[in-house]
Design goal:
Layout: H1 8-73, H2 76-83, H3 90-104, E1 110-117, E2 122-125, H4 139-145, E3 154-156, E4 163-172, E5 178-187, H5 189-202, E6 207-211, E7 217-220, H6 238-244, E8 271-277, E9 280-288, E10 295-301, H7 302-355, H8 369-457, H9 463-524, H10 529-586, H11 591-662
Antiparallel strand pairs: 1-2, 1-5, 3-4, 4-5, 6-7, 6-10, 8-9, 9-10
Helix pairs in contact: 1-5, 1-7, 2-3, 7-8, 8-9, 8-11, 9-10, 10-11
């Protein structure tokens, strides 16, 4: 089953408690491990210190006893008594007895002090007991007679059954050879006192064990029955011990099952070890004695060490639980403060998303990250509110601009339609002018032919005068007709000029409207980009229209000038022909003058023909220009239709933007 936690406060609390629990558990575990190691180390240090103290005390006691033996060995009376054992002097014997008695009185633990000859027999004691007894097989006696100082030995007295500790030292004669030995039999009470004092110092559960060099238990606080019993696995086994020591008349005692201590009999340095005692693990420190190959072992149950560690663990767990409770309370406190601010932000966000409410005000009450988030969110809402307000106003302006543009485009479309109608009429008029100009050209050519013919026959005589007069009359008539046609042509040219100016005015207005449309498109931003392209195309067409009308105006001006010249020439020719007719009629003598005039008329007619030809070419250009203007008007009309469509789409976009903005409360 998957547990889903929706509340942020719960997540924060669980996370904080989880982290605190992990840290508490980890720190408790590490503290327990460290405390356990520290307690073990401290216990080992305490055991080592106490075992060293106890070993030093026992060593000190042994040094005192050995010092007493060495002092006896240096007495001259004792040396002389041993050297003259067969017949010793009375004074030497008395001095020897006093020395032995005084030596025994030095300490209550000294049970007996005696002298042994080279044969191993006791020759003198402080209390007279054991004199004559053979001790040659005793280990301490053998070592002393062999020239060695026997520091310690332990055995059970046959008489009392109590253990005793023996010290022996060789006595050297005047020649430096061994002549006998002195020994002390001391009780184990001082050793027992040291071991029990050590136990009391270490506290409950502590024990002390004193082992000799063979692994025999000299003294212990564990159990009185452990005394004088060997450790199982020791270097010297009980049969050997029995051969070397006196166990009274009883059998050798069973070894103790403390195998872990069996290898400590001859150690030379302190060591830490563990052993089982009645199923309880013991922590022990073994300390070798300096004056003997004995080992003192101080031990404490591991349960005591672990008990202290467990007490620390319980204390640490209690502290961890308390810290966990405090962490939970703090997490709850901070989580509530955290979620309170986040809840306000969440509710505000939901109102913005679901209701479009941007009119709300959000206040941050803290200076932490949540407070900064709240202030940032408030600034974002404020910026969004300002942006939507601006967008709403822009959408309204865009809709108004689209309506105005649609109205302007409608007016422009009507104006372009009227322009197209005017251009169509201009095209018809230009066609008529073209036809009239062609007819005038034909007439001019006919006049030229007649003039040339008159020039040919001008010199033929009077006979031709009549025909010349008739021809001149015909020429006058035709000249008047040509003048009339040229006058009509001039009038048509003026009409075309007026139409051209009208087209230019329309192009200027189109250019101005295109400029206004481009400005509105720039204001509209991205939505007015297509409209800007249309406006730019209209402006280009208007510029082309202006240029074309300027070209047509120039051509019409030249045509008007040529027509004026032709009219002037025609009128002059008519007047001259009328004068010639008068002169020919009045006098035939003026025939030569008439011929000259005729030649002049030929030249004038040629000029008229050339002018008419130029006029015909100009009219053709005007017709072509008007045709191009018609095509341009068609393109302008198509552009206006696309502009109207774009403005309609722009108005629809503005309406949709306005509808979208209506759901937000600003």
């Amino acid at each position: 089953m998957q547990l889903r936690v929706r509340s942020l406060a719960t997540k924060v609390i669980l996370l904080s408690v989880g982290i605190s629990a992990i840290l508490a558990a980890g720190l408790t575990f590490l503290g327990y491990r460290k405390a356990a190691r520290g307690l073990r180390s401290r216990t080992e240090t305490a055991l080592a210190a106490d075992s060293s103290l106890t070993a030093n005390l026992i060593d000190s006691w042994m040094r005192e006893r050995m010092g007493s033996l060495r002092a006896l060995g240096r007495l001259g009376a004792i040396r002389r008594a041993l050297e003259t054992a067969a017949s010793p002097a009375r004074e030497d014997l008395e001095a020897t007895d006093r020395a032995l008695t005084d030596g025994a009185a030095l300490a209550p633990d000294i049970e007996s002090i005696g002298l042994v000859n080279l044969a191993g027999k006791v020759i003198r004691t402080n209390d007279g007991k054991d004199e004559g007894r053979d001790l040659s097989q005793r280990e301490y006696v053998r070592d002393a007679l062999g020239g060695n100082t026997f520091i310690t030995g332990v055995s059970v007295r046959e008489a009392s059954g109590k253990p005793a500790i023996f010290f022996a030292a060789p006595i050297l004669g005047s020649n430096g050879t061994v002549i006998g030995a002195a020994y002390i039999r001391a009780s184990t009470d001082p050793v027992r006192s040291c071991v029990e004092a050590a136990k009391n110092r270490l506290g409950p559960g502590a024990h002390g064990i004193l082992l000799d060099n063979t692994g025999l238990v000299v003294e212990t606080t564990i159990d009185a029955n452990f005394r004088m019993r060997p450790i199982a696995g020791a270097a010297a086994q009980p049969p050997v011990l029995q051969a070397r020591r006196s166990w009274d008349s009883g059998a050798s005692p069973a070894p103790l099952d403390l195998v872990a201590l069996g290898s400590l009999g001859e150690m030379s340095a302190a060591a830490t070890t563990n052993f089982l005692l009645d199923g309880v693990q013991q922590l022990a420190v073994a300390q070798p004695l300096k004056n003997a190959k004995w080992v003192y072992i101080a031990s404490l149950p591991m349960s005591e060490v672990e008990r202290s560690a467990r007490e620390f663990l319980r204390t640490a767990i209690a502290g961890a639980l308390l810290g966990l409770a405090v962490a939970t309370g703090l997490a709850l406190f901070f989580a509530r403060g955290l979620t309170r601010s986040l809840k306000r932000l969440t509710e505000a966000s939901e109102r913005v998303i679901s209701d479009g409410d941007l009119s709300q005000r959000i206040e941050a009450l803290t200076d932490d990250e949540i407070g900064r988030l709240g202030r940032t969110f408030a600034r974002m809402v404020e910026a969004l509110r300002e942006a939507l307000t601006t967008l709403k106003a822009s959408a309204g302006s865009l809709a108004d601009a689209a309506l105005k543009l649609r109205s302007i485009m409608d007016e422009q479309s009507q104006f372009i339609a009227s322009q197209a109608t005017a251009l169509q009429q201009t095209q018809v008029t230009a066609q008529e002018i073209k036809q009239t100009s062609a007819l005038a050209a034909e007439k001019a050519q006919a006049v030229l032919q007649v003039a040339e013919r008159a020039d040919e026959i001008g010199g033929a005589g009077e006979r031709a005068v009549a025909r010349s007069l008739g021809g001149l009359s015909e020429i006058g008539k035709q000249a008047r007709e040509v003048g009339d046609h040229i006058q009509k042509l001039s009038e048509r040219a003026r009409q075309i000029g007026g139409i051209t100016m009208t087209v230019k005015d329309l192009a200027d207005q189109s250019n101005m409207l295109a400029l206004n449309a481009a400005i509105e498109a720039v204001r509209s931003g991205e939505h007015g980009r297509s409209f800007a392209v249309v406006a730019r195309e209209i402006r280009s067409l208007a510029d082309q229209s202006i240029k074309a009308t300027n070209d047509v105006g120039g051509i019409l001006q030249e045509l008007t000038s040529s027509i004026g010249t032709a009219v002037s020439l025609t009128e002059a020719s008519t007047k001259r022909m009328e004068a010639g007719i008068v002169e020919v009629t009045s006098s035939g003598d003026n025939l030569r003058a008439l011929s000259g005039i005729t030649r002049e008329n030929v030249a004038a007619v040629r000029q008229i023909a050339a002018a008419v030809s130029q006029q015909n070419a100009g009219i053709s250009q005007i017709f072509a220009a008007v045709t191009d203007q018609m095509a341009l008007m068609d393109r302008v009309r198509d552009g206006l239709q696309r502009t109207q469509q774009a403005s309609e789409e722009l108005r629809e976009v503005a309406a949709r933007v306005g509808q979208t903005l209506e759901r937000y409360r600003l």
